Amino acid sequence: MTSEQYFEKTKQFAIALFALSVLFSVSAVEGAMLLLAGTVILERYRRAQLKLLLKETVAQPLFRPWMLYLAVGLLTAAFALNKAKAFAYAPSDIIKYLCFIALMAGLTKDKLAAMSDLYVFAAVSAAAIGIAQSVWALSSGLDLRAHAFAHPVRFGEMMVIALWLPLSRFLTEKQLGERKLNIVACLIIFAALALSQTRGAYLGFCASFVVIFLLDKQSRLRSGIILQALIFSAMIALATVPAVRHKLAAIPEGIAKAASSLMEPSSAITNHTSDVAINIRIELWKTGLRIFRDHPLTGVGPANVKKVFPDYYNGPLGDQNTWGSLHNLYLHHLVERGIIGLAALLTLFGGMLALAWKNFRTERNQWTLWALAVLPAYFVVNLTEISFQHIHTSFAVFLALAASCASIKSES
Description:
mainly alpha; globular
């Protein structure tokens, strides 16, 4: 085996491991990402192309938004209340960027089909495990949210991201047999999403479905077909799982109460809605706004919410005495990194969306559609979680974006 063949085989293995493990294991997917990055660097070194690799990295479409985001993270850490904690968090930001550039450099057009098959296989496998958990619990008279090997909320978010790949395949595929297989995959993943009881993921999927229906005229007929199948699946879940009915019924009440109470003084969470999880989030958001008012420009510093939370909320909230997450990525950044931190985050997210839209306009295919569909859902789930901070979801979004970019490049 030549060195070129060795590098190629290693990159194929790293991408395969990434696609299979991003839904299951943080350690494995980080290992796959580091293997891919190391292989790309070593390959370019052997070719005496390190300067070219650096030039290509700087030329990547999101280089400036990423640099702004990382620089603001370090700047706000310098003004943090607890600087040691703030700077200790910096590697978490850096590893996300490293993942993005490694996928952009290592994922090429010839590897997309195999990567996609493995990722859908992993998603269907995780979904099947989650469904089995919930079905077993229901048969035993228990309420157990589908989660496979993750937290149920994270699992629901992962399922939304994963769902859009077979759905995008169905919307773009010309062969009937392939479309049928993708419908089956969609229904399995959608069932797991429903049984995860993750409301943010429900709303995220609805948002992305509306966006694609409006933007992609070619998929509207097939979108109607898949929507009917998904509605039928949702009706089964609503009829058989009382917890899902409760979660959905509480959404309008929660939105209305959150909108009306965020500017009110903090009060006992029992005075809000009939749903404890929604009540806790409302209190977290109100507390976050009070912290922001005292630290508007650079915030309290990355990873410093937990330090200041007791100063702004007296007593336990839910089952915790203090909280390190405000369960809203945008508010969380506003509190930890101030106005400049939120601006940097929105610049990065805006750049991601612009890149996905540009790629889709250049060529409509399953990967450009996947990236374009995933981002609205991802932006919505971050309204009730800090999903961007978590490896399982952020790495999957970067995979979709890298696949989108690779799919429109020439083979050369």
